[in-house]
Amino acid sequence: MMSLEERIEALVSLGDTLDLNAPSWVSAIHRSEIENPWFSQDMVSLMLSNVISDFFTKEVLEEFSKKYDIKDQQKRIGLILAGNIPMVGLHDLLCVYLSGNIAIYKPSDKDAILLETLLEELHSIEPKTKTYFQKVNKLQDLDAAIATGSNNSALHFAYYFKNIPHIIRKNRNAVAVITGVENKEDYEGLADDIFSYYGLGCRNVSKIYCVGAFPKDAFYEAQEKYSPIINHSKYKNNYDYNYAIYLLNKMDFLTNNVLISLRSEAIQSRIGSIHYEEFDSLESIRNAINEKEEEIQVVVSKEGGFFRNCTFGQSQKPSIFDYADGVDTMAFLTERL
Asked: Which of 39, 109, 134, 251 is buried most deeply by CB count within 10 Å?
């Protein structure tokens, strides 16, 4: 068994030595894109760069861990990992590892290579870390479980894990609030929030709440840097399909030939499109957002004061302190087991 200090030191060493230009990572990124074309080199590099800078520093890991009463009890924690964006399951793996428990994990078929490459590198730095991770095809003999999936799969997870402590996550998306005080940098940050990982993440903005009219000119002008995204085959196929659907249904929408914007009360939008609603006041927006809290992962706003609020450009740059659905995974692992 490793002490907490040893576990942290292994992660720090991993962050210090991680080199995306190393042959192992060049190969892993290439293979992952072949198996899942959504995992383009740019998007994988974006995720890994954020992880290295925000997760694997001694100061961050020590500050993160000292908030909890870690008992090193080595309970078996089952993890069903999502695969919508690169390495999205890493935070759960790190929480189980840092809490002194054992991650019995089932990776998504869409995101198996990158996580395995990262763990292999960790194990090569400190072989004792191998005892904290066990990849399986079927989860059994567990003390607790954390599962992430769709709204439909969440029902199955809740039934399957009903006899043990569990965290079950469903579909969520980020929303943004525009009040008229935003500047060019805010709109450029909003473009990052929308287009990072092609909009596939639960922290990607899929809906915009506006005080007054939707600011289409400023909104679309800031997206210029993402115009090449339409050359990605899977994104373009989705955009073209959704464009045709909206035309056939005679729906009113705006587009810059890269992103479709249309009025809708729904939070979740199709790939290549975004929803917006116009309100008379910020207070009306607050009420509308509070009514749909269960569907919302993050609120991007310059005004602040919303639950799980973040600034423009930061929705897809979560720190290790940001928990999915606002549920403290480390508290679950250290207090409920």
From this structure: 39
Question: Which residues lie below 8 Å from residue 221, measured CB to CB, with a gap of 6+?
Answer: 187
Q: What pLDDT is attached to residue 288?
A: 98
Asked whether the beta carbons of 324 and 202 are under 8 A apart, the reply is yes
Q: pLDDT > 70: what percent of the chain?
A: 100
Both tokens of 270, joined, read: 């199709």
Residue 192 to residue 224: CA distance in whole angstroms? 11
Q: How far apart are the first and last CA of the chain?
A: 19
Q: How would DSSP label each residue in 114-165?
A: HHHHHHHHHHHH-GGGGGGEEE-SS--S-SEEEEE--HHHHHHHHHHTTTS-
Contacts of 75 (CB under 8 A, 6+ apart): 101, 102, 143, 144, 337
CB 171 within 8 A of CB 105: no
What is the distance between the alpha carbons of residues 288 and 208, in angstroms, rounded to a whole number?
A: 12
Stretch (H or E) spanning 102:
strand 102-106
110-135 per-position pLDDT tens digit:
998 999 999 999 999 999 999 999 99
Single-letter amino acid code for the residue at 53:
S
Tokens 């004061």 correspond to 305
Phi-psi region of 265 (alpha: psi -120 to 50; beta: other; left: phi over 0): alpha
Helix, strand or coil, per DSSP, at residue 65: helix
- Cα distance between residue 158 and residue 77, in whole Å: 15
| HEC letters along 20-56 | CCCHHHHHHHHHHHHHCCCCCHHHHHHHHHHHHHHCC
Q: Which domains does the chain possess?
A: 4-170 (3.40.605.10), 173-310 (3.40.309.10)
Is the per-residue pLDDT at 54 higher than 90? no
Instruction: Locate 168 and state its tokens.
Output: 């079950």
Position 133: which residue type?
Answer: F
